[in-house]
């Protein structure tokens, strides 16, 4: 207790000192965020390391963080401005930690160069919220930011639709992007333009991603520009230079300009669209509100904080500027009323599913939500029936965990026509046309990463110096997103390691009996020659283990077994020395799901995706963790 008081007193002293002198302290400029510096009862200090404070977007983030902090007396934030310099940002982080912060929010100058520092802070036990630019890997508490590839795709798709079936001439400003986000936007843009077909794309290289460079480049390319229909720039900053040059060339009536960012403020995207100088801007969501929301959850040690929240971007045109501004400025008005949710659940095929259902039912009660769940016994037809019954029932929200990825367009169009929003939970769907916005958000795991983690563990822990390792893959049910994506992620890493090969694959439908069947069928036609089994879930792995033992084959000795889910039954099998490794797929998504339902009903814009936090376990740690497992 004494230690706690001492820490808090130190924090308050530091904060008051910083607020009083407000000067450069050790290279870290403390900018008092809150005017209510005499805040009583500040229990947590949040350090904000901002890449720079000159870009409009970054100032907007600080403003959002400030506004959200003002609403909560328990927290105080202090911000350091790295002025775009990597070494200064590293020094800023050290200074903020020296002030005794309880949590770090960082928007890195350079994702790669800050990655190790972010990992160091995260590993030290200080929660880290990474914003805007995602570092590789998962050594942080949560990432909140846009999907820049999607932002670029949205711009490309909009331009293709603007030009129509006759296509046209499009100029894209494509400097050598100094940021990953610029490269991702260009990549998404190009993919959408190529997919549309019939569009002549001319790339103009910029010397820098600035307004002036864009202006000069467009003027210099007058000959090309005067034959073009659209110019695309992937930031507001560059777009202003393009608009000025197009005006200078007297081409405003002919050449349309489209960009990304959609920031508020003078000469920013929304402003330029309102003035008719930009035809459209694809918004880059800021995330300050979400950052403080999740910071409070983390500081309050709430369970279920996701690993990634991918924020939604919108195509803003003159006709919908008012609607978008209203959305951006909307205050969530969760009146706490009882919400009715219709949930179409896959079935009861596995221990994972049972834990998932339990988590959802318990959280519905906690969040004052009237849950009507229908189990489909892995039948898509039964899911359609359940969804149509929810429409008739007039529920407020429909949640679907789809047994397979495809075939959902018709029934989801019926739901949309009924004005009921849809959340995809646990698994996602693949739709014919993503622009129909038939679903609001996806909440679940990164199945590709689960597959990669399984194969990375095999690569790092199971080697052979005298023969190619034979792998048997026991797959979930055909067409399910975890089946497709775990297999893809696994093969992505497998392709980098030639001493392994998948020599046999079969479906086990995520069930215990399915796992037994795959091994039984194999043994009917082969002598056992498999070195490794990769099972898409624990139930099939445990069924396979039973069949192996029945045939005198020793699990984890004669064959290593790696599975996904990491249920308590998997931990027990690892402790028994039968299962070799379990990649976690967290079924306890009830709290996040019900928070998303309440956010949706309260008018908040939903993220594109909310990705759960997951680890990997093997026999070396199974004993340590088994007592802590919650499913
Ligand atoms: C994954 C989930 C899968 C589990 C299986 O999110 O959809 O379905 O891995 C379950 O155990 O049957």
Pick out its properties.
Rossmann fold, 13-stranded mixed beta sheet, binds beta-D-galactofuranose, 27 strands, 631 residues, 22 helices
Outline the secondary-structure elements:
Blueprint: H1 2-21, E1 24-25, E2 28-29, E3 31-32, E4 44-50, H2 56-70, E5 75-81, H3 86-98, E6 103-107, H4 111-123, E7 128-131, E8 142-146, H5 148-163, E9 168-173, H6 180-196, E10 199-204, H7 211-220, H8 222-225, E11 230-233, H9 236-248, E12 256-261, H10 269-274, E13 280-283, H11 288-299, E14 308-311, E15 315-316, H12 321-329, E16 339-345, H13 351-366, E17 369-375, H14 380-393, E18 397-400, H15 409-417, E19 422-426, E20 441-444, H16 447-461, E21 469-475, H17 481-494, E22 500-507, H18 512-525, E23 532-535, H19 538-550, E24 560-565, H20 568-575, E25 581-584, H21 590-601, E26 609-611, E27 616-618, H22 619-626
Parallel strand pairs: 4-5, 4-6, 6-7, 7-8, 8-14, 9-10, 9-11, 11-12, 12-13, 16-17, 16-18, 18-19, 19-20, 20-26, 21-22, 21-23, 23-24, 24-25
Antiparallel strand pairs: 1-2, 3-5, 13-15, 14-26, 25-27
Beta-D-galactofuranose binds next to helix 13 and strand 24.
Q: What report would you give on this structure?
A:
The chain starts with a helix and ends in a 5-residue tail after the last helix. The protein contains 22 helices and 27 strands. By secondary structure, the protein is an alpha/beta fold. The protein has 4 domains: 2-140, Response regulator (Rossmann fold); 148-283, Rossmann fold, CATH 3.40.50; 339-444 and 588-613, Response regulator (Rossmann fold); 447-585, Response regulator (Rossmann fold). Strand 21, helix 17 and strand 22 form a beta-alpha-beta unit. The strands form 4 sheets. A 13-stranded mixed sheet has the order 3-5-4-6-7-8-14-26-20-19-18-16-17, with helices on both faces. Strands 10-9-11-12-13-15 form a 6-stranded mixed sheet, sandwiched between helices. The radius of gyration is 26 Å and the shape is globular. Bound molecules: beta-D-galactofuranose. Residues 349-350, 352-353, 426-427, 444-445, 482, 510, 537, 564-565, 585 line the site of beta-D-galactofuranose.
């Amino acid at each position: 207790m004494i230690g706690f008081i001492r820490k808090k007193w130190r924090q308050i002293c530091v904060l008051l000192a910083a607020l009083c002198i407000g000067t450069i302290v050790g290279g870290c400029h403390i900018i008092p965020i809150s005017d209510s510096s005499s805040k009583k009862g500040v229990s947590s200090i949040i350090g904000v390391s901002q890449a720079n404070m000159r870009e409009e977007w970054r100032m907007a983030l600080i403003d959002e963080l400030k506004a959200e902090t003002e609403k909560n007396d328990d927290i105080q934030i202090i911000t350091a401005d790295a002025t775009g310099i990597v070494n200064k940002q590293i020094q800023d982080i050290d200074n903020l930690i020296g002030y005794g912060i309880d949590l770090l929010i960082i928007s890195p100058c350079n994702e790669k160069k800050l990655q190790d520092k972010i990992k160091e802070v995260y590993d030290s036990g200080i929660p880290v919220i990474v914003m805007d630019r995602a570092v590789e890997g998962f050594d942080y508490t949560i990432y909140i930011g846009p999907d820049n590839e999607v932002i670029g795709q949205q711009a490309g798709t909009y331009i293709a639709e603007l030009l129509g079936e006759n296509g046209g001439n499009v100029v894209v400003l494509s400097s050598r992007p100094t940021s990953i986000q610029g490269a991702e936007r260009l990549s998404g843009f190009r993919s959408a333009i190529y997919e549309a077909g019939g569009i002549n794309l001319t790339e103009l290289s910029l010397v820098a991603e600035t307004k002036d460079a864009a202006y000069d480049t467009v003027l210099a390319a007058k000959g090309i520009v005067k034959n073009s229909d659209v110019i695309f720039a992937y930031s507001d900053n560059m777009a202003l230079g393009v608009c000025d040059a197009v005006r200078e060339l007297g081409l405003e009536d002919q050449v349309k300009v489209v960009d990304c960012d959609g920031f508020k403020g003078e000469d920013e995207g929304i402003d330029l669209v309102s003035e008719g100088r930009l035809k459209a801007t694809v918004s880059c969501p800021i995330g300050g509100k979400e950052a403080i929301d999740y910071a409070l959850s983390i500081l309050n040690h709430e369970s279920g904080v996701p690993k990634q929240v991918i924020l939604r971007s919108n195509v803003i045109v003159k006709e919908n500027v008012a609607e978008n501004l209203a959305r951006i400025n909307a205050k969530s008005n969760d009146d706490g009323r009882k919400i009715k949710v219709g949930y179409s659940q896959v079935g009861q095929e596995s221990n994972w599913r049972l834990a998932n259902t339990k988590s959802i039912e318990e959280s519905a009660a906690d969040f004052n939500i009237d849950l009507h769940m229908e189990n489909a016994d892995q039948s898509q037809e039964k899911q359609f029936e359940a969804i149509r019954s929810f429409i008739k029932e007039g529920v407020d929200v429909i949640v679907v965990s789809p047994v397979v990825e495809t075939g959902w367009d018709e029934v989801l169009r019926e739901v949309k026509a009924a004005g009921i929003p849809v959340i995809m939970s646990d698994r996602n769907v693949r739709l014919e046309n993503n622009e129909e916005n038939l679903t609001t958000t996806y909440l679940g795991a990164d199945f590709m990463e689960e597959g990669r983690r399984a194969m990375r563990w095999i690569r790092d822990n199971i080697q052979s110096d005298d023969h190619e390792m034979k792998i048997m893959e026991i797959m979930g049910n055909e067409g399910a997103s975890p089946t497709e994506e775990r297999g893809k992620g696994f093969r992505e890493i497998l392709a980098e390691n030639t001493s392994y090969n998948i020599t046999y694959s079969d479906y086990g439908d995520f069930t215990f009996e399915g796992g037994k069947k795959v091994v039984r069928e194999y043994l009917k036609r082969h002598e056992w020659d498999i070195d490794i089994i990769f099972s898409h879930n624990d139930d099939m792995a445990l069924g396979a283990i039973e069949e192996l033992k029945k045939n005198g084959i020793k699990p984890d000795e004669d064959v290593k077994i790696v599975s996904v889910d990491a249920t308590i039954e998997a931990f027990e099998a690892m402790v028994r020395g039968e299962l070799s490794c379990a990649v976690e797929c967290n079924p306890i998504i009830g709290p996040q799901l019900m928070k998303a339902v309440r956010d949706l009903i309260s008018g908040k814009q939903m993220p594109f995706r909310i990705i759960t936090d997951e680890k990997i376990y093997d026999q070396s740690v199974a004993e340590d963790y088994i007592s802590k497992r919650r499913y």
